[in-house]
Design brief:
Helix 2 runs antiparallel to helix 3. Helix content is 32%, strand content 10%. With 121 residues, the protein is α+β, with helices and mostly antiparallel strands. The chain has three helices and four strands, in the order E-E-E-E-H-H-H. The strands form two sheets. Strands 1-2 form a two-stranded antiparallel ribbon. Strand 3 and strand 4 form a beta hairpin. The chain is elongated.
Length: 121
């Protein structure tokens, strides 16, 4: 791009984590970029005999955990470390963790899954 007689590459510089170059990263929509929309599940996993929490899908590979915080924090960390998600998606994931406060079991899963996809269109 030529600006003020100077050639720049500003149009290709990421404006925010993930989401593509320039203004594409500044959208109001969540963009999980290299990953699908994150979800967690509650049930019997990994040969356990008790219900536990686990991420859903190939983009979020992690064993199950009895403590939901382990799974929700892992998912949100993946958005930054692996998925290159945009700021909206990262912030929605943080809000999803907050939305789980005081909840357990399937209610916790439903709260997280709903909040993490709040800005998916």
């Amino acid at each position: 791009m030529l600006a003020l007689g100077i050639t720049t590459n500003f149009a290709t510089i990421l404006a925010a984590p993930g989401g593509g170059p320039g203004s594409a990263a500044l959208t109001n929509d969540a963009n999980f970029n290299k990953c699908g929309v994150p979800k967690i599940a509650f049930g019997i996993f990994d040969g356990r005999t008790e219900d536990s929490f686990a991420p859903v899908g190939n983009d979020f590979q992690h064993g199950s955990a009895l403590n939901a915080d382990i799974i929700t924090k892992f998912v949100c960390d993946q958005l930054v470390n692996t998925c290159d998600a945009n700021t909206v998606a990262i912030n929605d994931c943080a809000a999803a963790i907050t939305a789980t406060n005081g909840k357990s079991g399937q209610a916790l899963v439903d709260a997280f899954n709903s909040a993490v996809s709040a800005h998916v269109h």
